[in-house]
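Notes, Module 5: Reading structure tokens.

Key idea: the token line is not a picture. It is a compressed description, and you learn to read it the same way you learned to read a sequence, by spotting repeated patterns. We will look at two proteins. The first is printed below with its tokens.
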Amino acid sequence: MGFLGKDGRCGGTIVRRMAVLLAILVGLSCRQGQNEQKTASLPSQVIEGFTLQESSSGERLYTVEAETAYVFESFQRIDVIMPRVLFYNKDGKIHAELVADQGTVQTKNNDLVARGNVLVLTADSSSLRTDSLCWNNITQLIRTDAAVEIDTPKGHVTGYGLISDAGLNKIEIESEVKGTSEYQFNQKVQH
């Protein structure tokens, strides 16, 4: 009958049909997972001429401007192309400007990441060049592990790794510090 094959074994045709049906279901399930993954990686919004302002207790901290922004709500981030970040001092005046090829705003904590040809220019004509850096919104510090080059009215310094305020007033270079400057440098003591 229907459950026995021509050779008398159980379920020849039905087993094959069940196997084909199972393969189709598995294939559809995998495609659905891929489609969900593709949908999750697509931005929920694309914004041309993007501007974001961050403040704390009514005090303006920074403004991010970008040619284009890709908002990923499910990942709590905004990817920006050609960002320009203006950092403000306590008086509300711009004391530093950052430009880069691209960046990311973490919308959960408003931390920033800048990548590609990163340049920070300060009100006193100091500049920092690196390939990437992060802004921690809580500590109000920039940090990088990459190579850095700093030019100020008082000299030229290079090294690797940096922690600084946005205005480049308090700079700590992690290693391989080289250059000429009127500044006094304290070497970190390794324990």
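Here is the second protein, with the sequence above and the tokens below, as before.
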Amino acid sequence: MTGTQIISKIAKNTKKGFTLVELVVVIAILGILSAIAIPTVISMINSASEAAEEETAHSINEACRNYYTGVLSGIINSTNQGGSTQTNLPGALSTKGTRETAANAATVINACEYAGLVDVVAKIKNNDTTFGYDATGVVMRSANKNAGSITYISSTTKLGDMYT
């Protein structure tokens, strides 16, 4: 037998494809990689979601403080109410007592409407308990219990209850 004949015979006897052992090894490797990657991806998604909620809580906090201060100072009034639906806003030249009454009666929804936080308004109106405020009036994620006791924000939460 010549070298060409031997190679020809070997070529005829070889089968195409993978063996069962090779397939099992590949599947095992893919399973191990998946077991490592999936928890990492889920953790990253959860972290991003928490960061977004923290940012939203900060935005609500700023909106409430700005709205409360704006009504107290007379900047936000019956002729300059932005997107707020608060009906008892006093006029620009009203007394300090009238402005205080209106500021204390304003709700978180009024503040968020004025700030254009439409998604937050919808969440609050649907009784979402994602956000609350602590004894100092700071708005935070309700999952963040570092500050102790939190009161959930609802559609009737008044700024006066938060800040007085």
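Summary for the second protein:
- The chain is about 60% helix and 5% strand.
- Residues 53-163 form one domain.
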